Amino acid sequence: MNPLCWIAPAKINLFLHVVGRRTDGYHLLQTVFRFLDVGDTLHFTPRTDGQITLATPLPNVPIESDLTVRAARALRESTQIKTGGVTIALEKRLPMGGGLGGGSSDAATTLIALNHLWGCGLSSEELQQIGLTLGADVPIFIHGRVAFAEGVGEQFTDLAAPLPPAWYLVTVPGVSVPTLDIFRAPDLSRNTPMMDPARWRHGDGHNDLEPVATRLYPEIAHHLAWLRRASPFSGMSGSGACCFAEFQTEAEANAARHALPTEMKGFIARGVDVLYFPPFRYP
Q1: Of 92, 137, 187, 265, which is the active-site residue?
Q2: Minimal CA–CA distance to 237: which of 67, 35, 7, 22?
Q3: End-to-end CA distance of the chain
Q4: Do 168 and 256 touch, CB atoms closer than 8 A?
Q5: Rounded CA gap, 186 and 120, in Å?
Q6: Could you tell me the CATH number of the domain that includes residue 257?
Q7: Residues 6+ away with beta carbon under 8 Å from 255
Q8: Residues near 238 by Cβ (< 8 Å), separated by ≥ 6?
Q9: Phi-psi bin for 80: left (phi > 0), alpha (psi -120 to 50), beta?
Q10: Which domain covers residue 153, as residue numbers?
Q11: What's the number of domains the chain is made of?
Q12: How far apart are CA 272 and CA 283, in angstroms?
């Protein structure tokens, strides 16, 4: 059978505040997610034997731990589908440990695609609940619209004003940042005052995770310093390592990319505010 082909887009955090901590240890956040028009590509081939298999295991990631496999199994368990089977092939483009949501987007796209492929009929909200068991960033990719997020990142409020069109230069320091290491750091700020989502405007806020990430990984500090000379709207996405600078036009973003020092690598992406997931998505 011909595989279904879907794009799993990247995201950046325009700001990220840590505003508290729950009794179970999870951090309470406020952030605005914006999608990018780049990402991984996933291929889903239906199977009739009920098996869920991964044709493209990632280096050093056990198949049982792969988020696409976990998402497929979680969906099947939640819907009690007996015959649902699939072979998943992943073309990985987004860096692992980069703060661009690659693994979370892969999981969300798997849930959306298999909900269609297997005829589960679950709503977006139901898929988000399954996605939250896989990771805090999974629900935003299922929500599919730029949003102000709270809680652990799963409570969404539509923005009061639309974001300006933008192109981003995203740089990729040669390090993979374990998110847990950042959140466990004793010097992480955890008491930033809460913002009113209705009052947030583009350019407000900062990333509370940056001081820890730049202390642990000087490469990130180097990238941020250069990008902030190129654009006032620059920052680190999520817990890092990837950093971004925002520009009004593709030409400006490309000019900055061409000016990057030889030791810095980066790519250009357009900001996207609404994701569409039709049955077939081809790169």
Answers
A1: 137
A2: 35
A3: 19
A4: no
A5: 44
A6: 3.30.230.10
A7: none
A8: 12, 13, 16, 99, 100, 101, 137, 179, 209
A9: left
A10: 1-283
A11: 1
A12: 16
**pTM across the whole model:** 0.94
Average pLDDT on 221-235 reads 98
Catalytic-residue membership of 11? yes
Q: What is the DSSP string of 129-166?
A: HHHHTT-TTHHHHHH-B-EEEETTTTEEE--SSPPPP-
Reported as a single tens digit per residue, the pLDDT across 6-63 is: 999 999 999 999 999 999 889 999 999 999 999 999 999 999 899 999 999 998 889 9
Tell me if residue 121 falls in helix, strand or coil: coil
The H-assigned helical ranges of the chain are 67-79, 102-117, 124-132, 138-143, 179-183, 210-216, 218-230, 250-258
> What is the spatial distance between Cα 34 and Cα 259, in angstroms, rounded to a whole number?
25
137 catalytic? Reply is yes
Distance CA 95, CA 116 (A): 27
Query: For residue 251, which amino acid is it?
Result: A
